[in-house]
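Here is an idea for our session: we take a single protein and study its fold together. Once you have written the record down, we can walk along the chain together.
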Amino acid sequence: MRRPALTVAVLTGALVLAGCGTDSGSEGGDGITVSGAYMPQPVSDDMAAGFLTIVNDSGTKDELTSVTSDAGEVTVHETVGGAMEEVARLSVPAHGQLVFKSGGNHLMFDKLKRKPEQGQTVSVELHFAQSDPVAVKMPVKSATYVPKTIPKTGH
């Protein structure tokens, strides 16, 4: 299914403006914690992006296998060579992290039931191959929000 080029271009611009990083706050269990979750206020009525950092403090590698939300459909994307690609799962290394940031891995919300507005929150549930699901509340920030800190990427 192809989306109109203009919608994708506008969303890509919003992703670039959103910056990268985390702010305080975490949720989790089974050695999995989540911090810095947020959604830039969408510029489209039916599409949005989400960012967060998943930290795995356990000694066992895990995988993010899906994300669900009552706000709409959620898919996991990575950006390689400037192109977004939907992926079925992403690895969360033992004693490591998986970072979702503008220009890289991100959550893509589609077919939103309502357009999230700045100041609201969007609930998501992260599903893993090994760990229990993790519920996360993503605050909706301004479309141009840039987090105060940059996540460690292990590079």
